[in-house]
Automatic annotation (TrEMBL), chains A, B:
Protein name, UniProt field: Bifunctional hydroxymethylpyrimidine kinase/phosphomethylpyrimidine kinase
Record-level Gene Ontology MF annotations: hydroxymethylpyrimidine kinase activity; phosphomethylpyrimidine kinase activity
EC numbers on record: 2.7.1.49, 2.7.4.7
Entry keyword set: Kinase, Transferase
Lineage top rank: taxon: Bacteria
Record InterPro entries: Carboh/pur_kinase_PfkB_CS, PfkB_dom, Ribokinase-like
Enzyme class: transferase
Limits of the Carbohydrate kinase PfkB domain: 2-278
Pfam families documented for this protein: PfkB (PF00294)
Amino acid sequence: MSKLVIVGTVAFDAIETPFGKTDKILGGAATYIGLAASQFNVDGAIVSVVGGDFPKEDIKMLQEKGMDVSGLEIVENGKTFFWSGKYRNDMNTRDTLITDLNVLAEFTPKVPSAYKNSKVVMLGNLHPLVQMSVIEQMDSPELIVLDTMNFWMDSALEDLNKVIAKVDVITINDEEARQLSGEYSLVKAAQKIMEMGPKYVVIKKGEHGALLFGEDEVFFAPALPLEEVFDPTGAGDTFAGGFTGYLAKTEDYSFENMKRAIIHGSALASFCVEKFGPERLLKLSKKEVHQRLQQFKSLTQFEIELK
Amino acid sequence: MSKLVIVGTVAFDAIETPFGKTDKILGGAATYIGLAASQFNVDGAIVSVVGGDFPKEDIKMLQEKGMDVSGLEIVENGKTFFWSGKYRNDMNTRDTLITDLNVLAEFTPKVPSAYKNSKVVMLGNLHPLVQMSVIEQMDSPELIVLDTMNFWMDSALEDLNKVIAKVDVITINDEEARQLSGEYSLVKAAQKIMEMGPKYVVIKKGEHGALLFGEDEVFFAPALPLEEVFDPTGAGDTFAGGFTGYLAKTEDYSFENMKRAIIHGSALASFCVEKFGPERLLKLSKKEVHQRLQQFKSLTQFEIELK
């Protein structure tokens, strides 16, 4: 069991989907990552920033889930990062309505000294310079996982490339992999991205699952076919949290174990989309997770004799 | 080993992709289905129609692959069905440039008497009335597989529904499943379609793989991630041919065996897209197929202990 450092937003989200809408609710990449990682009882620390308007009970909840919050800065006279978005009917595209950076605009991450020796680092989607600062504060991590998005490819590519050169795993979606590599074929895109630094590339395809590429290997995990996707917000972060949480717990970074980590991440993400925000993750029993892993097995496993 | 009846087009195709273009080459649903099914050395019969312009050596080729062609009518003074299409840069969308029905316009299928007792029937994409005529000529088939498309949902839905009520398996793509059922969620779409008749629904998602739904079960087979998709023409038919060919060979219509059939279909389809038209299927060694099945195993199989 390794310690896990998580950097990312802790935020308010207001979400509208074809099924309804919320007021400001708990959100943010680090929130979802932390909640997913907590399923593995890892000793995790959330490095982030919130304003004085952030509910103390949400901080307490993260602590009760086993997350250290000494690296969660509270700017008492500031406001918490706020994002608002609306999903279209297909649930695959969303329009951002509001992005108020607030306290995030001047965020300088501080990794708690007790966590500088963590072996696993999860860099949630943030400005590449913030991600780099976290890398530089770590003693000698064994596995750094990077999540990023097209926004940083458009606005801070040089900084992003420096981060990419330093990480072991990158998780991005298919369109972002194409943009970053200039290759339409995801196989070629992954190869090019691996040349930029990472040993493993995880390409997230939303409802179409996720691909894991290693040097000479590739693995595919489908998304669980669901009757209803209620709210996709946080699914990618939940996936990343399940992935790194499992790897921090097992401390085995082989391709075989990454496959298991991908399946665990996919299983947790499949819960996330069932309710608004992180609601479903907050009340998740071991038994439910176990049953869902069993569903992933039934969904994908087959017997063909090959002599 | 069961006999297999295949009804579908035998045609000329002219294809343009970002990688190049062809003159009129061999095409048609029944051609791809037959070539894929021939991998399993099944005793298959192609029921179709061509014009006097159709090359005798192509008919001979189908025979050499083990296909009975006594149900392949030759209208000497007619012209073979011709389709021409152009793929866009993403290779997922194509525009139809020409559709000359020619001899297909007055096609009345005749199942050879030696094949009326076949246990497996593959109804390739054609007018539902033609598909129904084939069903009515069969003695007592154990498995009828239907392929169809949105064109018939738009133009001949009543006839199509009658066919759907009589088949065991339907294979359609995701958009067609949504159109046919009126449900966006593929899980709900499959449930509704099963209420219309079929015991199993196969939803093809192209580069995103295929889903197999049974009463209480679901299985997912990814498409093999390829460096280059050269020409997608015939991939869906090749999938269907591999699927039914494997089932005709094994005569086991359980969900477990359907899973194997789906994997075999996916493996053969992954070859089809590597070259123009059916070229790649014509020269396919057992060893190559074996290696590709192995790739599907590596791509999807994982070990997670669930107590």
